[in-house]
Structures are given as structure tokens and as C-alpha cells.
Amino acid sequence: MTRIVEIPPSLDDRTFEQFAQAFATGDPGARVLFDARQAQWASPFGLIGLLTAGQALQEAKRERPLFTVPASEDVRRYWARAGFFRYAEELFELHGRVPAVKPDTHSDVLLGVTPVRASEDVHAVVGMIQERASRLLTENLGLEAKATMGFAMALSEACQNIVEHAGTAGWVAVHAYTYRKRLGRRVVVIAVSDAGVGFRRSLEGSQAKRFGDRWGDGAALEAAVIQGVSRFRDPGRGQGLAGIKRYLTRWEGKLSIRSGTARIAIVPAWDEDVPLTEHLAPFPGAQVQIVIPAHGETPA
Amino acid sequence: MIHTIRIDHILREAVTTPYRDLVTRTTGAAVRSRIERSIDGAGGATMMLDFSEVGLVDFSCADEVVAKLIMGAGESGARYVVLWGLREDHREAIEHVLTHHRLAVLVAGPDDEEPRVLGELDSDLRTLLDLVQDRSAGDATDYAADLCWPLERTAAALHRLALLRLIRTDGCTYCPVHRQ
Fold this sequence. Notes:
The structure holds 2 protein chains of 2 kinds. By secondary structure, chain A is α/β, with parallel strands linked by helices. Helices cover 41% and strands 24% of the residues of chain A. Chain A contains 9 helices and 13 strands. In chain A, strands 7-8-9-13-10-11-12 form a 7-stranded antiparallel beta sheet, sandwiched between helices. A 4-stranded parallel beta sheet of chain A has the order 1-3-5-6. A two-stranded parallel ribbon of chain A has the order 2-4. In chain A, helix 5 runs antiparallel to helix 6 (145-166). In chain B, the strands form 2 sheets. A 5-stranded mixed beta sheet of chain B has the order 1-2-3-4-5. A two-stranded antiparallel ribbon of chain B has the order 6-7. In chain B, strand 3, helix 5 (88-101) and strand 4 form a beta-alpha-beta unit. Chain B is elongated, with a radius of gyration of 16 Å. The interface between A and B is medium-sized, with 25 and 28 residues.
């Protein structure tokens, strides 16, 4: 018995909910086939979200899932350049021709799909991104040079959430592209995802009692993102997310975090997202997206 | 006596990688424990922590290295620290964590005649710290007279500055940490 999960033609943080719904539906014991044949585009959030689904199945010791690659040669090449297939082949039984393309680090893929397992991986990611992002952020996005350091800091803190809280490995990717519909400007997007315990389980021991009946994925996200609480007693904890929010406020960026069945967002003026969404389809771990828009650019 | 600790050197020893960035709590804790060993072996000397060759400092690492170092200063009894060579982004990250903990530290750079304070310090303490740095040494009566403050207010503020390790005490005399 095989359960088919269709990948939306355009997979980003919004259409991700269709994917999560399909992933959560059906016989949990059945082998899963991820069908990406119709895929036309995927954001870094979408790409590492797919890997997270595969990782969750692998860690649950379920039968190795199938994955049909996009029919479009261009899309396959883009996904290959973004480093997706390099890790997908470890998690899925791939069907379809995967182009032999080296991961690209000179175009809009600032950081291809990169695993985050330990502190050393965060060092490596931060080292790589400073080299590559500096020129793009200042020349293409019109940000001041000092924004590059803040950007690397935000990336570092987002990746550390995996190392510190997830209880398993995760993924990070950074791309630049144009937000045509929502903003009409170029943006740089950091996506970080893991298949770990998620915010609710991470904070349950210290926070569930305080929230009482309200406790759930949404309350856990609110506690971590808005109130800055952490599962650790150390009073210095929780400053990573606070630092990210501070950076995003300065550069009109957006932060959204999905965990379990809820999603929270710090929404800038240019976006119309809702601050908190609950009762979503369950999805493993936590998924973070940070969006920094271009400055001094006239919206298209 | 002032000892200088090159943070980039300590970082290289702690993580055994070529990266120049102070990122992650694990790295921060490893760097701090090396700094603490150096401080504890320095016999109460002021330590100048030289950040000039450090790349990025993230919030978590700033918390582990700087905030926890200062918070532990009261326990060891003799930790006087001045941060040297901070870039603007270093200052922002460190100030963010110090403000969170309601702490302050002295910072200096090649263009500074005197160390300046970074972090959270109320106006009484800032005023008095400036005076201690100008005056070099004095007791509560001297500073109270200079500021035209009541003695009790001056003594309380000096005591708080001493607890924060922003000034040194020698009996009833208070002096800047960078002059011994």
C-alpha cells in the first residue's frame, strides 16, 4: 500500500500547508510516495521542508519513501544546484533523472541545502554565508554593510535552535529571489527546518503548567517568540530569538516559525500574514523562515 | 598591571577550526572557561579582552562569553575586565545581552582615552564612574564633595560600581580598574 503526497507546483511557506496536510493524511503505516512531477518552483523553505518530511520518516524507522523528481528539466537543475538531491537521495528512493549539477554558490543560492547537526556546522554555515552574502546584501538588496553581520547573526541563532533544542539534526538553506506577488522586491530568505521535538515538547516541562488549558503548539510558540522563554533555567537563554526579532525590526524583515500544528509570525508592514495560526496539519519538528527585503528599491 | 587576552587565539584553541567567529553557546562556554582560567591565574590583575581579530559575535556567544564572565566575577572575587577592539556589530550583540541581564562592562579602543561603559547603568553610576576615571583615586568623601552629593548616596553608588567590578576598591579608596 502506497500513500501519495503531492507536492504543490509552487512550494513555499504558504503552499507548504497543502503539503503538510497531504503528509499528515492517510494510513500512517503506508509507504509514502512524494510526487513532485508537477513542481515548477520551490523556495528554500519548501526544499528543506521536503527533506524534513523524509528525515521524520527515516527516524521513525518507516519504509524508505519514494520520490518522483520534477518533470521539468529546469526545475530539476535548480533543485540540484540548490543541493536538494544530494541529501534527498539519502532519505528517499528517487525516481526520475537527477541532473549531475554541482551545488551552485554563485547565483541566487547563497547557501545550498546544508545539514546542521552540531555547533561546528553552525560555524561552517556562518563562515560560508559571510563570504557569499556580503556583496549580495549590499549591492543587490541595498542594505548597509553592517546588515551583513546582523544577517549572519540571525542565521547563526536560527541554526542554533536545532543544535540546542531539536534533539536531532536539521537543515538550512539561504536563497535570494523576487517576491513578486507579496512585495514586488528582491528578498533574501533564510530557511531552517528540523524533524525534532518541536517547541511544545521542548517547553512542556517548564511552561505547560503556566498556560494550563491553553497549552499547545500555539502557546509554546507564543512563549518562545513573544515572551522569550526557554526550557533552560539559565536566565541568559532565549536571547537568540530576541536578537533575530531586533535585527528584523531594523531591516523590515519577517520571521515566521511553524511547529507542530501552529505557526507564529512577526509581520512587517509590507506583509499581510496573520500573527498566529493554530489547528494546522501536524508536521514534525520546527520550521523557521526569515525574510529580509531589499531597501531603497521601488516596488515592481 | 593589565594582562591582554587575545580572544581570537583563545577561540582557535577552543574550537580547533580556522573560523574567526564567536558563535554558538558551546563555543562561548569553551572560550569563557579558558578566559576564566587565565583570569584566575593572574592574581587580580585587570584583563583586557582583545576582540580586534574576532569576526562575528552572535547573541548566544556574547551571553556565554561576556555576560557570564561578568556574572561570575563576584564569585571569584577578583575579576576586572575591559573589552578592547570591539566593532560596532560586536558592541550591539554584547550590549543586547548585558542589557538583558542589567549588567555593564568597560570597553576601550585605540581612539579612547578612557574606557567607556557598555550595557545598563543608571545615571548616578555613570556620573560617578566618569568621575572615578577622571580622578584616578579617592574615597567616598572626596567624590561626594566633587559631585555635591550626600555622602550616603555617593557611598551607595560606589559600592554598586565596585560590585559590578567597574571600579577597584582598596580599603576605603576607589580607583579605575585600568590604573593600578
